[in-house]
Amino acid sequence: MLGQTLLLTRPRLxxxxxxxxxxxxxxxxxxxxxPGEATKLTVYLGRQDxxxxxxxxxxxxxxxxxxxxxxxxxxxxxxxxxxxxRRRAQFLRLDADVPLMVIAVGRGDRIAxxxxxxxxxxxHPVMTVEKVRICKRDGxxxxxxxxxxxxxxxxxMAARLKLTIYSSEAARHDGQPVxxxxxxxxxxxxxxxxxTLRGMWGFRADRAPHGGHFPHPGRHVPAVTTVIDTxxxxxxxxxxxxxxxxxxxxxxxxxxxxxxxxADDVRGLAE
Length: 271
What we know:
The protein is an alpha+beta fold and 271 residues long. The protein contains six helices and 19 strands.
């Protein structure tokens, strides 16, 4: 599928993350952590999914919050498939059954224990777990980004680092949202690209699950900024991010493998 993606879409960059897929009857999974590491959990669901008559993404966040997970963010998609059925956004329909992701970061032992409970919320649960390194938490420097060599069949792909900053619309730096300041400063520093996704629901350890509701529909929703680049350029990007996250936010890093379309791919598409 990777080759077809490179051929058909001509993307600037395709990345592969090495996580563990969980479906069906889900048992506790411990991925193991070294000092300074945490576990990232991603739950895949739809906006119209319900658990006990409430939105499933709210139920997931509430359960993770009660079980002491450090934080979670709900990100909304615009197109996708689930169990062979197309799910995509529709014009002027804010309640369309689009795909969602709930991304949580926390201690691996706590995430392992909550996995079976999460699995019981859905008829067809789909989740992934992977290790990430904590770089900063609430202004405290934990470690700088580090890269690990790839092994196995994917070792020939280029190693990249994925730097992720979890913040919110309410977090400010010099009067503007922190994620705006991060993207602007990264661009001025010559970093090739950064992407910010605006969440619709989420929580941090010190604040219960919440989202964009009247009278403040946008200020209290989470925001996730991602930067993917070579280890050398990520080191430069982290210097910028370190300065802008001196008080709040969570910064993590993880290894990804990158593929880019070659000249042969482009010629094949043209033909």
